[in-house]
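Hi V.,

Quick status before I head out on leave. The structure for the redesign project is tokenized and pasted below; the design run finished overnight.
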């Protein structure tokens, strides 16, 4: 029997930025950007002005985030002074996953939070009063360039998503984005998603589980994706974010509580103006992004140089959020669809 295991959202160990920081480069590059579908309002003279928007002492905000490469724009905005120019001081707090981020935002422990769309859809469906205030990254159209993919173990006969019928697939957590991607991919490829066994496996243990044949496949992110492929794993066709949403799967979003947004609308706008600027900068300066990743994770520099990066894009595609909401309901992860007008700022 083939076994597919999902990945658990466990962080890579955190490094001391003072000892892991590498010199920054300034190597312009190009990046694909989706067609804009929604623009956030910005305060007068937003990030491009180079002037401090706040008066007097900066506004300090705490941000619940994740030790992933995709969180880089937050740290890049601090390094480049984009938040400072907006009169904001950011204090990142690393968490274990999107559910913890949502709970922290709801409780007031975090002013803002960074997480995936589906964990926030689930939180909203459970009644948590949170809003999506912006985005920094998504998954582009080319599955070969994705920083999260589904792989089959070395020697497996699994070639396409349909072949996952009867297999055990490792995922980071059940009832999350990995489950939605795997089940949707299998169904779109002509298979029966109910015949796929999903097994919760911590992300750092996925490569070992593949090698020991504890699982047949894994939905795996960088840098573990790179390790798995080097050890002989193979990318499974049509089992990806791109198979689910070929136009660009919306992924990393920032949230705040309804109360915080109502009481601090100007801070929210300035926070996102700085992040928008950092996102655009990240798309043009991939080497600086890689240098920044080394300051908040313990991914070895030689690995950071090889991993695939997300597609940096500050435009929130509402249709992608809507699709993900419908799929979470289709596969029984939520009972009712959240009201997107209430969820998206």
């Amino acid at each position: 029997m083939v076994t597919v295991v999902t990945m658990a959202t466990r962080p890579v160990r955190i490094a001391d930025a003072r000892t892991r920081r590498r010199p920054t480069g300034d190597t312009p590059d190009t990046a694909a950007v989706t067609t804009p579908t929604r623009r956030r309002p910005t305060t007068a003279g937003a990030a491009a002005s180079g002037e401090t928007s706040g008066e007097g002492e900066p506004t300090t905000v705490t941000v619940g985030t994740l030790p992933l490469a995709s969180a880089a724009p937050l740290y890049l905005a601090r390094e480049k002074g984009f938040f400072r120019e907006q009169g904001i001081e950011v204090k990142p707090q690393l968490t274990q996953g999107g559910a913890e981020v949502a709970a922290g935002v709801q409780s007031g422990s975090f002013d803002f939070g960074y997480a995936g769309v589906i964990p926030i859809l689930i939180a909203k469906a459970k009644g948590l009063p949170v809003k999506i205030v912006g985005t920094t990254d998504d998954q582009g159209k080319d599955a070969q360039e994705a920083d999260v993919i589904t792989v089959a173990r070395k020697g497996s006969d699994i070639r396409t998503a349909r072949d996952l019928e009867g297999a055990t697939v490792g995922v980071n957590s059940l009832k999350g984005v990995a489950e939605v991607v795997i089940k949707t991919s299998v169904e779109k490829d002509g298979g029966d998603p109910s015949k796929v066994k999903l097994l919760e496996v911590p992300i750092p243990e996925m490569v070992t589980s593949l090698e020991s044949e504890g699982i047949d496949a894994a939905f795996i992110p960088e840098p573990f994706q790179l390790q798995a492929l080097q050890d002989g794993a193979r990318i499974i066709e049509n089992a990806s974010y791109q198979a689910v949403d070929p136009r660009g799967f919306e992924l990393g979003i920032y949230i705040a509580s309804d109360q915080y947004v109502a009481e601090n609308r100007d801070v929210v706008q300035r926070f996102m103006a700085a992040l928008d600027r950092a996102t655009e900068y990240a798309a043009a300066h991939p080497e600086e992004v890689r240098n920044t990743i080394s300051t908040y994770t313990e991914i070895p520099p030689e690995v950071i140089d090889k991993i695939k990066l997300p597609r940096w894009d500050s435009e929130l595609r509402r249709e992608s959020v809507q699709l993900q909401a419908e799929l979470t309901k289709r596969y029984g992860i939520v009972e009712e669809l959240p009201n997107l007008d209430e969820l998206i700022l």
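Above is the designed sequence. The domain at 4-8+146-244 is CATH 3.40.190.10 (D-Maltodextrin-Binding Protein; domain 2).

G. will cover questions while I'm gone.

Best,
W.
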